[in-house]
Design brief:
heterodimer, A: mainly beta, globular, B: mainly beta, seven-stranded mixed beta sheet, four-stranded antiparallel beta sheet, 11 strands, 0% helix, 48% strand
Chain lengths: 115, 118
């Protein structure tokens, strides 16, 4: 079945460092890909998405490119801030209606940014 | 303010004592869903609902029930909780199940309910 694999955390970086969180997926067809972020004590929020190969999603300085050839959707940010400390989830969803809108999540990667 | 509200935020209970976690959204969303979050496993879908009186099983429905009598509410019911249901639960909603295709209608998540069953 469809699945998402993320790099394990926690990831600890200093402020202004470059961030990469790896995400690879297995899916039939052509899923949409997402990054969600979960701040402490809160629910998940959509960070960015891409719906087809070579699309680049971007938001708040974060970027991810849908790479069909490597089945990857790595999250990057050029200069992290303390406020970026959170858990990041990669997810995919098929387009078929009968999949019930289900998002398939990776296990999450905790990011801690130190001043 | 558009939001998904879950209650309670924290719940400690004992094995076998029926409980309900409430979920309400104020966005007139048709689609609602419950997920559980466990370390190392990410989020897994428990049940979902396409609309009022329409519900279906997700990946891990055993031990749970849901109902959708009104559009805004989607309670999660544990008839006889067991320790393996100790988890962090999230309710989510969106305009429709096609949320993946609509950047204007992502899933909106509640803040979670941390359940401990002893």
């Amino acid at each position: 079945g469809d699945s998402v694999t993320q790099m394990e955390g926690p990831v600890t970086l200093s402020e202004e460092a470059f961030l990469t969180i790896n995400c690879t997926y297995t899916a039939t067809g052509y899923p949409s890909l997402f990054w969600y972020v979960q701040y402490p004590g809160e629910g998940l929020q959509l960070l960015l998405k891409a719906t087809k190969a070579d699309d680049k999603g971007s938001n708040k300085g974060f970027e991810a490119t849908y790479r069909k050839e490597t089945t990857s959707f790595h999250l990057e940010k050029g200069s992290v801030q303390v406020s970026d400390s959170a858990v990041y989830f990669c997810a995919l969803s098929g387009l078929e209606y009968n999949q019930g809108g289900k998002l398939i999540f990776g296990q999450g990667t905790e990011l801690s940014v130190k001043p | 303010e558009a939001q998904v509200t879950q209650n309670p935020r924290y719940l400690i209970t004992v094995t076998g004592k029926k409980l309900t976690v409430t979920c309400s959204q104020n966005m007139n969303h048709e689609y609602m869903s419950w997920y559980r979050q466990d370390p190392g496993l990410g989020l897994r879908q428990i049940y979902y609902s396409m609309n009022v009186e329409v519900t279906d099983k997700g990946d891990v429905p055993e031990g749970y029930k849901v109902s959708r009598k009104e559009k805004r509410n989607f309670p999660l019911i544990l008839e006889s909780p067991s320790p393996n249901q100790t988890s962090l639960y999230f309710c989510a909603s969106s305009l429709g199940p096609w949320t993946a295709s609509s950047y204007n209608s992502p899933l909106h998540f509640g803040n979670g309910t941390r359940l401990t069953v002893t």
